[in-house]
Design brief:
The structure holds 2 protein chains of 2 kinds. Chain A is an alpha/beta fold. Chain A has 29 helices and 21 strands. In chain A, the strands form 4 sheets. Chain A has an 8-stranded mixed β-sheet with strand order 4-3-5-2-6-7-1-8, with helices on both faces. In chain A, strands 9-16-13-10-12-11 form a 6-stranded parallel β-sheet, sandwiched between helices. The chains are: A alpha/beta, B mainly alpha. Chain B: One of its GO terms (cellular component) is kinetochore.
């Protein structure tokens, strides 16, 4: 392969065509949060700002535009200044620079069409390919017509991801020449960057759902835009069901459903035949190649394909889709090794390889926007970059310059199964829609090629049409609690776009009942109402609320925050042993929860806080996660204070210090308990009787008959992860309903629990006699 | 000894656990030794890692394949669902025929095989299995045929034997009156004195015909043996052809006689051996009140005591 490298034709030798404008990541709305220094630092006027002034000037700025009757021409005039139509300030030079770019976006040519449809209907379905500008422009189009600030309302635009909500808000603030957090703001879990003057709010779909819990009609909003609806997140699905009903109650509310894929019919049907507007994206044709035979090893085939493209195809960057961090790092290493040989033996150009996955630090994620390397010698073969990514590069991140896509056809997906109550990330075949989306990534800059590492027949026969929406793959206990709080009583007939399996609802109800969040009739209890105030899983919320009973609410608060952020412990492939040694410094013999708490306490020590970043680096800990945990803790603390939940600690010297924490854990996680088998080799989960192993990351040092776990994960084996030792007496004591021995199946667990009951009774009797 | 206690613990024994209270109170030393040994064996043979993994997978798969809605009606969640108005069928506002009843299945991918690789392997395996199955079927058919044939042949052989036996009985029963052959010396030259073969009932005529044939052959052989020295002489002495002709004539007449046309017999012989046997047996019953299966000649027409016509009826 390497020797039969064709002579590159003149075209590929030509100068790289990408303009600096296209390559400049500061123009990428998803990365706007990384360029804070450049944009929107000046908010000198913010202090003198008041809403009366705003409404006056705004009225002035938009006085030519009749609400819900405005045209693109009128809006254009207002946009052209010289004063900001929303706050009366004079517009900056940068504003006009950006305006020029904005007017080149595909959506701009259809502004009038959009307005006419928006004005004439309540619900509109809008389809725009990624890159059409819909996320940044449509909300602004709406602002000019809807003028929410003049009616004490807001426009909401939801995003499935926090990062997108933040970045897009930042970008749009810059486009509108306003300070982020003023006219344009964002709201994500644990962070609210809005002010009374905010008229356009980007927010996660989950946040809008939480707002609906306290404001069933979402009366603060005059228009609600659900963006990226095609991603079908759990929150977006629930919101669609809610909006369907709210639309009846509020004829004044306008709703725009935005999707990036062409399967808009489903949305139209769901919203009773809502009209559709399609804006074509700026895409080039993509030629698709299939393999003549199924691949025995897709990873090996993917690496081979990347190398082949590099050796034989004309200039253009490569995007390879793989499933997860480990696989991606492995592939990057292998490609790098092979490319060296290709360069030496076949005079191939240089190849820069970048991994991309969610847990990668932002600075490293940003490297994917680096331009491809130049030829090694002037006039030599052009270099290229190869991005090896999870499916975050499928829709949420756009990398310009990609001409070749390599698609092995797999991704990691969360799957929940109520039958054994397991929620796991599993490597699964992607859907046809996903495959098309991936292929489309090759046609962003110029005509491209997509190499599918499977046969065309397999594409047709083995891939499902659409990826299963999240609601079908999730534990619904949080959602059910939210729905109850939203005032939805008929959960069974809620208009789900794709109804989940009945068993999933049944499990959720059962779990909430055992957690005493719902009573036997399915009604919210006081505890349930309180728990729904917390943006947490019900088990975590209940644990937090119950923690004062165990005199350790401070510690449980920290622990809850730590359990809500990504992995604390960093374990780089090249320093596993050192990382493990460092982890051992914090290890607590009774388990991982207490170990995490040790980490947090050490992180908060004066010594660590002198240079926390360095301290984390030295101890193989994720600074980002710990910082995030700190923030989450603060937000949760506010909710606790508001709900009058007492914050307290058992003195550290007290020998019950750790025991109290472990008991408090039981109050939330009593349904996630496993007992060691007499053989001492495996554990069996309580009630579901699944055989599980302790995850290799567990620190549990002594043999513990009963353990509580945070997660049940499936790989090729069944594992429980984040594990702490507990005592059967606590289980019986703290959750007598769940541990009603009569209801247990005959077997080792029942026998052991019965023995514990008898022992407790004898002890009790003994006490009384004395 | 406490048999009731032992019975109570039967379930637990099935789960391969030795509960503490399974020990009968009045255990004999032999029982104790047996129990200790059993326990020690279990300890000495802990399950291997792969056994445990397989078991874990099996319990997981079996749990994943059974609905918790139906398997456990006492479940709290099921009761709450019922209170919320759930009866059967999928959730949702209704009207969606594709609404989901089953949770999404968990498919664990254990290797790096590409899309379509497993189904391709399965397809190949299926094809091979299919081919093998057809082959096996073919072979099996042949085998069955062979066995059937062997069985049929054996059956025929047996019936042939019975047929001859029946004919001999008929000859014995009827022979003294009807057959003149007995009176004649077998191999007697004067065959014209014999009753014509056709006068013998067709059902046992073959026996006679064969008898005659046999006699002739025996006679011819004897003749030949007797004539041998002469023949040797004639060969050596250049005997003329007349004598040869005589010899030939001697054999030839036998041939002639036997080959005498007897369409009735030919017709009878063309029947299947079982049918011939039936006919002989029926003949014996009718003419001689003799049951071939009872091996008894009944004194009267009623043949009282004979269970029936067939061998099966005679057990």
């Amino acid at each position: 392969m390497a020797d039969r490298r064709p002579e590159p034709d003149g075209g590929t030798r030509a100068k790289r065509q990408k303009t600096s404008g296209e390559m400049d990541p500061s123009n990428n709305p998803y990365l706007a949060h990384m360029y804070e220094d450049g944009d929107g630092t000046s908010n000198g006027y913010a202090e003198s700002y008041n809403s009366a002034y705003s409404s006056q000037t705004a009225q002035h700025g938009l006085s030519e535009l009749p609400r819900h009757k405005s045209t693109a021409v009128q809006a254009k005039k207002a946009e052209d200044g010289p004063h900001n139509p929303f706050n009366g300030q004079s517009l900056s030079k940068q504003y006009f620079n950006i305006l020029k770019v904005r007017r080149n976006l595909p959506v701009h040519s259809q502004r009038d069409e959009f307005l006419r449809m928006y004005e004439s209907t309540q619900i509109l379905v809008f389809v725009g390919e990624t890159g059409s500008g819909k996320t940044t422009q449509i909300p602004q189009f709406v602002l000019f017509d809807d003028q929410p600030h003049l009616h004490k309302k807001m426009v909401a635009c939801t995003q499935p991801r926090r990062v997108a909500a933040m970045s897009v808000a930042q970008r749009v603030a810059a486009e509108m020449d306003v300070a982020l957090g003023e006219e344009v703001g964002y709201s994500i879990r644990f962070e609210d960057k809005t002010s009374p003057s905010t008229m356009l709010k980007y927010m996660t779909d989950g946040m809008l759902l939480r707002e609906a819990m306290n404001d069933h009609n979402l009366s603060r909003y005059s228009t609600i835009i659900l963006d990226e609806a095609h991603e079908r997140t759990l929150a977006t699905d629930i919101l669609m069901g809610l909006l369907k009903e709210i639309a009846h109650r509020r004829p004044d509310l306008k709703i725009v459903i935005m999707s990036a894929t062409l399967d808009a019919e489903k949305f139209q049907t769901y919203f009773n035949g809502a009209p559709l507007l399609t804006v074509p994206g700026r895409t080039h044709p993509v030629e698709i190649f299939y393999t003549p035979e199924p691949e025995k090893d897709y990873l090996e085939a993917a690496i081979r394909t990347v190398l082949q493209i590099h050796a034989t195809e004309p200039e253009g960057d490569i995007l390879l889709f793989l499933t997860g961090e480990e696989e991606i790092e492995d592939a990057c290493r292998k490609i790098d090794l092979e490319v060296g040989e290709l360069v030496r033996e076949a005079d191939a150009g240089p190849l820069e390889i970048y991994p991309l996955y969610g847990t990668l630090p932002p600075q490293q994620q940003q490297r994917i926007f680096n331009p491809a390397p130049p030829p090694r010698t002037p006039g030599g073969r052009p270099g290229r970059k190869c991005v090896v990514s999870t499916n975050i590069a499928e829709t949420s991140l756009t990398i310009d310059g990609i001409v070749y896509v390599v698609d092995p056809g797999f991704s990691k997906q969360k799957v929940y199964n109520p039958r054994i109550r397991v929620e796991s990330l599993l490597v699964s075949p992607i859907s046809k829609a996903s495959a098309q989306q991936r292929a489309g990534r090759a046609g962003r800059t110029r005509p491209g090629k997509c190499f599918r590492l499977y046969m065309e027949e397999a594409f047709n026969k083995e891939l499902i049409e659409q990826t299963h929406p999240e609601i079908l793959r999730s534990n619904l206990s949080s959602t059910v609690l939210e729905l109850k709080k939203l005032g939805i009583d008929d959960l069974v007939h809620f208009p789900f776009m794709d109804p989940p399996a009945p068993e999933t609802l049944m499990r959720a109800l059962e779990e909430l009942n055992y957690l005493v969040c719902l009573d036997d009739e399915g009604e919210l209890t006081h505890l349930g109402r309180l728990a729904s105030e917390f943006p947490l899983d019900p088990a975590l919320a209940v644990m937090l609320i119950s923690s004062p009973e165990f005199y350790c609410s401070n510690e449980i608060l920290s622990l809850t925050a730590l359990l809500s952020v990504p992995q604390l412990f960093v374990r780089p492939a090249n320093a596993r042993k050192r990382a493990d040694e460092m982890k051992d410094l914090f290890a607590h013999q009774d388990g991982d929860h207490l170990t995490m708490l040790n980490v947090y306490h050490a992180f908060k020590s004066d010594q660590a806080q002198q240079n926390p970043r360095q301290w984390c680096h030295d101890h193989f800990l994720s600074y980002r996660s710990l910082q995030q945990a700190d923030n989450v803790r603060l937000q949760l603390k506010r909710i606790m204070e508001r709900s009058e939940i007492e914050l307290m600690s058992t003195p550290f010297e007290d020998k019950k210090y750790y025991e109290n924490i472990r008991r408090a854990l039981v109050s939330g996680f009593f349904m996630q308990v496993a007992k060691q088998d007499p053989s001492k080799k495996v554990y069996t989960t309580v009630k579901d009787d699944q055989s599980v192993l302790l995850h290799p990351s567990c620190v549990l040092q002594q043999e513990s008959e009963w353990v509580l776990y945070n997660e049940f994960v499936l790989t090729t084996k069944n594992y429980i992860r984040t594990v702490t030792a507990v005592k059967p007496e606590w289980l019986l004591d703290i959750s007598p309903n769940y541990y009603d021995v009569q209801t247990f199946k005959k077997g080792e667990i029942k026998r052991s629990l019965q023995a514990t009951v008898d022992r407790m009774r004898r002890r009790e009797a003994g006490k009384e006699r004395r | 000894m406490a048999p009731t206690a032992a019975q109570d613990e039967e379930d637990d024994y099935m789960t391969m656990l030795i509960p503490d209270d399974a020990v009968p109170r009045n255990e004999t030393s032999i029982q104790r030794r047996a129990r200790k040994q059993r326990e020690a064996e279990q300890r000495a043979h802990p399950k291997t890692k792969s056994e445990l993994e397989r078991e874990a997978r099996e319990t997981r798969d079996s749990a994943l394949s059974s609905s918790i809605l139906t398997s456990n009606p006492d479940n709290k969640g099921a009761k709450m669902m019922a209170k919320l108005g759930y009866k059967t069928g999928p959730l949702g506002a209704g009207g969606d025929p594709n609404a989901r009843m089953e949770p999404i299945s968990l498919a664990m991918k254990e290797d790096k095989s590409g899309i379509g690789h497993i189904s391709e392997a399965k397809r190949k395996f299926r094809e091979e299995a299919e081919a093998l199955k057809i082959d096996m079927k073919k072979r099996k058919v042949n085998e069955e045929e062979f066995q059937e044939r062997v069985r049929a042949e054996q059956q025929e052989k047996r019936m042939e034997g019975q047929l001859w036996a029946a004919m001999k009985i008929a000859e014995k029963l009827e022979g003294p009156e009807e057959s003149v052959r007995e009176e004649e010396k077998p191999g007697s030259d004067d065959e014209s004195k014999l009753r014509p073969l056709t006068s013998i009932p067709v059902v046992w005529r073959e026996l006679v015909r064969r008898g005659i044939e046999q006699d002739r052959q025996n006679h011819a052989q004897r003749m030949m043996r007797e004539s041998l020295p002469q023949a040797r002489l004639s060969v050596s002495n250049n005997l003329d052809e007349d004598e040869d002709e005589d010899d030939a004539q001697a054999f030839g007449t036998v041939e002639e006689e036997i080959e005498e046309e007897d369409p009735e017999l030919d017709q009878f012989n063309a029947l299947y051996v079982g049918d011939r046997l039936d006919k002989v047996i029926a003949y014996l019953r009718e003419k001689n009140r003799y049951c071939f299966w009872c091996k008894y000649q009944y004194p009267n027409e009623e043949m009282e005591g004979c269970p029936g016509l067939t061998e099966d009826e005679h057990g």
